[in-house]
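Here we describe the complex-level prediction in full. Unlike the single-chain runs in Section 2.1, the two entities below were treated as one system.
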Amino acid sequence: MLIKQMPARVESLHDLLTFVTDEAKKKGFSEDARHRIELVVEEALVNVFVHGYTQHQGQVEVRCLDSDDSSLTIEISDTGIPFNPLFLADPDLQPDLAKRKIGGMGVFLIRKMTDEVAYRREGDNNILTMTVLNR
Amino acid sequence: MEIVVTNESDIFIFSIRGRLDAVSVPQLEERLNQWFEQSGTKLVFDLDGLDYISSAGLRVFLTTAKKIKARNGKLCMARLRENVKDVFTISGFIALIPAFDTIGAAQDAIQ
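The structure predicted for the assembly as a whole is:
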């Protein structure tokens, strides 16, 4: 298992994404699968950056779990306020521009573009686990 | 990310190269705010050079679409790469901003 921990702020985003996409490349993931991984990891991380820590600067940890080359499972964990992003309702995908609300797309994209996603709370940690298949 | 703004008569073209993510979005927002200070009403996003977009980027596009609609203008985009088009499609945003394969077609649409 590979682990990378950084401050939970947007300046950490690119390093954390590179960490994950490098791993996906090593496993021979298709370009399409790599794009999906990068996107869902960004969305999960930005949720932590924005919602996770209200009072002090915290850390976020990204773990690439051991598995074969047909899939990549990533865990994003933080010690911020208890927050399950999967509780957020899907945005109203409505075609009327004036009525379409801004926001809510991050978790929606995670749901649509991962093959499996789950949240759990362990002690002080929020842990979001996402699996993307190589296809 | 690089943003190059050109115009042919009253149609402005924002060419975006690189990635549009939570890090680079403020840069695009600022450039668009500058554009909105003027009275332009026709905007084309040329996305031939855009290799990645996340929900942060989608948010800017939606805000831009709303602002242009508020001034009775027209917005469209051109030359989306496959992976970018996928994100627009899955999010439903492809229905909000017309997309074209060429800049010429985009310009014709918003004449």
